[in-house]
């Protein structure tokens, strides 16, 4: 008698899994092999609406996806831990790379937005590890980004950052930094000019901070080691320095600028524009300065160039006994003539190159304006805030007197910032 084949009935959920190609996620290969291929083909081609309330199977599908994720959670955990190990290694490798933290700071809006978006899945502390920033720094970034205030130049909350400069103060700094007359000055000289004009009332470190925020950053130049003993002077007319620098105008001609400087005050006592190195020009500068200032026992410091070591200069010095002692830098004395060499650089980059000078007559005109500004208008931090002419004349300039207004302005600044009625502040 033939054996009767047993007909199997299949659970409806199995049909649903087959329809959505999910059998591999639930059943083993051995279990799936027991289902006739004809059944599988039929189930896959059935319409969704054949069974009433079939939409409940969508919930089952979602539960299956969740089960799959939970089953894989240990693997996901290992993967996340591995990623964080890679991040820690990356931080160790780039820890000495200059500018990484500055770059993150400049992109703080993107950093805050990203962390806020993923904080539901990744804890904030773990997300901060990726950017290698502290929780306090993140909260500061978040405050700056989220609580923008229209009363602040940089949109910082004025109540939270009440010590920030007022908008008009920031605009004052911006005005001086962009002013044509000070465009090529050092930032220290611009700061002193603004303070002395009674238009700015803050310390120098604050000024430099806002220079960076406004994008006014100078090129950082590396300097070669200086093994020479620096020359120190304590009064005007103690040491006079002379040097020659070459400047080429746009017509292709070279011009030799001869300069005489008082070392202590850095004041330019005289200058001459010649077509070549000229011993006679140095003699005239030295003689005219002597007649005007009548120095006594002054060291005349130069390099060993032919314009300095010649009969014109030596005969003048010999005719003025006990007045000048001519010494060659780094030859007769250990120190260099760096003071006037630094001035030559300042002269060119702050006063001459920006003008686009076309001829000797143009150079002579610009030189007259440049020396007047340098001596009388451009204050120097090394001179305590004085100009060279003020230092040479012995006019005192007590910079601490300006600092009294800094305290008053700070109190006013905090008061006004806290009174801000911006709705975003709290």
Task: Give the arrangement of secondary structure elements.
Layout: H1 12-19, H2 23-26, H3 29-33, H4 37-44, H5 56-71, H6 73-94, H7 100-106, H8 108-118, H9 124-131, H10 135-146, H11 167-178, H12 187-196, H13 204-213, E1 239-248, E2 254-262, E3 268-274, H14 279-293, E4 298-302, H15 311-319, E5 324-328, H16 338-352, H17 360-376, H18 388-393, H19 400-418
Parallel strand pairs: 1-4, 4-5
Antiparallel strand pairs: 1-2, 2-3
Helix pairs in contact: 8-9, 11-12, 14-15
Work out the count of structural domains: 4
CATH class of the largest domain: Alpha Beta
Structural class: alpha/beta
Shape: elongated
Nearest-integer average pLDDT: 83
What CATH architecture of the largest domain do you see? 2-Layer Sandwich
Strand order of the largest sheet: 3-2-1-4-5
Q: Which series of helices and strands comes N to C? A: HHHHHHHHHHHHHEEEHEHEHHHH
Can I get a quick summary?
The protein is an alpha/beta fold and 426 residues long.
Structure characterization notes:
With 426 residues, this protein is α/β, with parallel strands linked by helices. It has four domains: 60 residues, no CATH class; 73 residues, no CATH class; 96 residues, no CATH class; 155 residues, Ribonuclease H-like superfamily/Ribonuclease H (Nucleotidyltransferase, domain 5), CATH 3.30.420. It contains 19 helices and five strands. It has a five-stranded mixed beta sheet with strand order 3-2-1-4-5, with helices on both faces. Helix 8 packs antiparallel against helix 9, helix 11 crosses helix 12 and helix 14 runs parallel beside helix 15. The chain is elongated and about 135 Å long.
